[in-house]
Write a structure and sequence with these properties.
InterPro entries: DUF3576 (IPR021959). By secondary structure, the chain is of the alpha+beta class. Helices cover about 35% and strands about 15% of the residues. The chain has two domains: about 50 residues, no CATH class; about 90 residues, Alpha-D-Glucose-1,6-Bisphosphate, Chain A, domain 4, CATH 3.30.530. It is elongated and about 95 Å long.
């Protein structure tokens, strides 16, 4: 019985010591004043900073407006199913291009604010899961990139 009591006393003492070690910053400064100061030399990071979402959602939009508008203009014959300008995704329904016989649908992903071919991802699907020739996909991508460059020149931001 004495050993059980001694074991509980040791566990309680260890827990109290561990809890005391977690508290305070050891410098005697006001903790609220330290947390409110955001200067790089003063603010210290904690383990909770890993889990915090510090990105401002107003500044995380990474879509090039010229690519976005050019995609909508070039593929204007396709009915739009959904658009998400915050992620840069445009999904269209099936449609037949002017002068074409096959219908297809497109999914466009604009992943970067740069007016660059790497920022544009295009996926075309034929009706019934038919494969689309890589040359066709490349031609549509080229048309979108050309139109985006024209829009940029018209805007005067060269």
């Amino acid at each position: 019985m004495k050993t059980a009591r001694a074991a509980r006393l040791i566990i309680a003492t260890t827990l109290c010591a561990g809890l005391a070690a977690c508290g305070g910053n050891g410098s005697g400064e006001n903790v609220q004043q330290l947390e409110g100061d955001m200067r790089p030399g003063v603010r210290q990071s904690t383990i909770w900073d890993v889990f915090a979402n510090n990105e401002n959602p107003n500044y995380t939009v990474a879509v090039n407006k010229y690519l976005w508008n050019a995609s909508l203009e070039v593929l204007n014959f396709l009915p739009i199913q959904s658009v998400d300008p915050f992620t840069g995704v445009i999904v269209t329904g099936y449609g037949t291009p002017p002068g074409g016989g096959r219908s297809y649908r497109a999914t466009i992903k604009i992943s970067d604010p740069a007016l660059d071919a790497r920022s544009l991802r295009l996926s075309l699907q034929g009706a019934g899961g038919a494969a689309i020739a890589p040359g066709t996909v490349r031609a549509v991508e080229d048309a979108i990139l050309t139109r985006a460059r024209q829009l940029r020149i018209q805007d005067g931001r060269l």
